[in-house]
Amino acid sequence: MAHGAHRNPFLPLHPDLTLARDCEQCLGWGTVVTRDGDHELCHSCQPDPAGDQGTATSGS
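and the corresponding structure tokens:
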């Protein structure tokens, strides 16, 4: 039995492949697959989308 793609209300991930090029964690893909089978951005080479906000709050 074939399974289709899971419906996801979120936009698809768009990794920066320039940053991912030499990453050993994601092997240049920019994304990793979790144990649940979900794709997420690689924590080693991709910037955190909310990372700028977190550093501004912790710096004050």
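(Above: one complete record from the training split.) The longest strand covers residues 31-33.
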